[in-house]
Structure formats: C-alpha cells, structure tokens
Amino acid sequence: MGTLLRRLIDALDGAVESAYREAGLDFRPRYTPVIRLLLDAGPMPIRDIARHAAVSHSALSQTVSQLQREGWVELQPGHDRRERVVHPSAKTRKLEPALRKRWAITAAAAASLDVELPCALEPLLRQALEALDSKPFKERLAEAASDTDGTQKLQRLSNPLAKAKR
Question: Minimal CA–CA distance to 103: which of 111, 164, 43?
C-alpha cells in the first residue's frame, strides 16, 4: 500500500510541478495549501497555517522557510517575539492570477481522473485520514497481529470502496 501511495503522489505532484514550470512558475505543489490560505484568508501565524493545512508546525516551518527563500512569502514578528506571521509577498500577489489559473486546471484534471475511478479520490483520501485519526494504523497493526491467521478480521470487513461511494 505504501508503495502505491508513493507512486500516486509522485505521479500527481510530478505532473503538477512540471505544469508549473511549463507555465513559467517556479512553484511546487507543496506550497499550494500555504499560498492559497494566505491569499484567501490573509496573513497568519505559522501555527495557524499548520492547523488549517493539517500538518505539523515543524513541517510547515520548513515549507515557510523555503517559501521565504524563494520570495513567495515574507515573515513579520507577531504578538510575541516567538510568533512569526506569514504574509504573501509582492511576487505572490503579482502571480496570483497565474497561480489561480493553474489551480483551476489542476482541479479539472483531478475531476477527469475521478471519472475513471470507482469513487472520487479526494473524499476517499479524507475518509482514510479521518479513520486513521480515530484509530491509528499502529492500533490496527496490533489488532491484526493478535489475530494469528488474519482471517477473522478479514471476514468481518466490508468492501472499503463501497463505503467511499456513500
């Protein structure tokens, strides 16, 4: 499963990153949630962006540092000395129409992929993450390990694609 997920991410992100380059944008897919949020909601502290993007503060700090180095965002002090507020840069504001066009194209391409699948990919991924939030995979592994031959649990499971179509 992990190999398939990595292949899927590589296929999706690789194509999107290539499309950005072809459009003359030095932009990475991983920047999208941060930049979209800043453009839509305005400047905000790193911790708030991390919460909205559902990523760790540490991971988001690294992304923001990269965005700052590349001129996409500017950092300003917040209410206390530790807080940094992220602002979209002039470069981001200037390129906003081109970014929004790429995002619309990416959404259309994703919709065309969904047509070929038994269920829409994004809702399925969200459901999988919600299920893992309520019961982490580590717990699931422990349960599976306690079922010595693995058949009891498999017999009780229903088709996961049927749940995703609901």
Answer: 111
Q: What is the per-residue pLDDT across 92-119, written as a single tens digit (0 to 9) for each?
A: 999 999 999 999 999 999 999 999 999 9
Q: Which two tokens stand for residue 16?
A: 């999107």
Whose CA is closest to 28, among 93, 72, 94, 59?
Answer: 72
Q: What is the pLDDT of residues 9-33, one digit of tens each?
A: 999 999 999 999 999 999 999 999 9
Give the long-range contacts of residues 82-85, CB within 8 A, separation 24 or more: 83/45, 83/46, 83/47, 84/45, 84/46, 85/43, 85/44, 85/45
What structural domains does the chain harbor?
A: 2-116 (1.10.10.10), 118-166 (no CATH)
- Beta bridge mates, 75: 86
The pTM score is 0.80
At residue 137, the 3 state secondary structure works out as helix
